[in-house]
Amino acid sequence: MAADRVFAYGAAAGLLGDLLLGDPRRGHPVAAFGRAAAAVERVLWRDDRGRGALHTAVCVGGTVALGGLAARCVRSSPAASVALTAAATWAVVGGTSLAREARAIGRALRAGDVEAARDRLPHLCGRDPQSLDADGIARAVVESVAENTSDAVVGALVWGAVAGVPGLLGFRAVNTLDAMVGHKSPRHRRFGWAAARLDDVAGWPGARLTAVLAALAGPDPRGAVRAWRADAARHPSPNAGPVEASFAGALGVRLGGTLSYGGRVEHRPVLNGGGRAVAVSDIERAVRLSRRVGLLAFGAGAAARLVVKGRTS
What we know:
By secondary structure, the chain is mainly alpha-helical. 73% of the residues lie in helices and 5% in strands. It has helices at residues 3-21, 29-44, 49-74, 78-92, 95-110, 114-120, 134-181, 193-217, 221-231, 240-251, 281-312, and strands at 255-261, 264-271. Strands 1-2 form a two-stranded antiparallel sheet. Helix 5 (95-110) runs antiparallel to helix 11 (281-312). The longest helix is centred in the middle third of the chain and has 48 residues, at 134-181.
């Protein structure tokens, strides 16, 4: 079976598995990677960029090599190759868990239980929930859904289309490592520099594709493109900026502004300043847009593999 069909069938099966099963409660492969990366960090940590780069190379390189070895072992069997791609896709894609957590917070807010929503918010993002009222929580959820559509779904599918199982696993390793050490805490300001920069590079194509697809699939394509062009570059993240701006414009809402992470207050630029404030009902709208974007990203990846095969055959 050709590699393009292996990816298409395997990724479709993996996405279906994610839709039906979501993430496992225990024994998730990403959690296992996190434990291994933490163990490597304990051995290699120094307040030094070089040590951080070595940590990133060991963790990401080892994951990519493991994926390549597994793909090589099953390449003579089309069924096994499809099964491996499906398992890898299911392991790295988190669209169902993203939607589940967002909707759980939305239900709590609709019921007027702001404390329950605050308790649930750390499952979705790193904001300080106690500093947020109901509207602030709703805005945080919509922003997280937008950003994680790229990080947890589209980015992985892009690299899976490019490099198969090693691409799927490698992207998730980079993204997870950035979440672990890429933030600017005193311990990781220098050590996590390489992981953060690699995540910026690996996330670049998926973020732009997410922004394009959000514009195509959203209720206001012109608003999405307008907000992306006007505001994306003002965001401190080169990849979250296009995604959040495009979602904001597509949904007609205003994102960004003051937020708090780990007790540190940040004043971020407003995205789509002409939009209205986020309402609780926008959480469901954002989740539905995220779903559509994920499906379109799968279609784009499968189609790209077919086009590349057609030009090289």
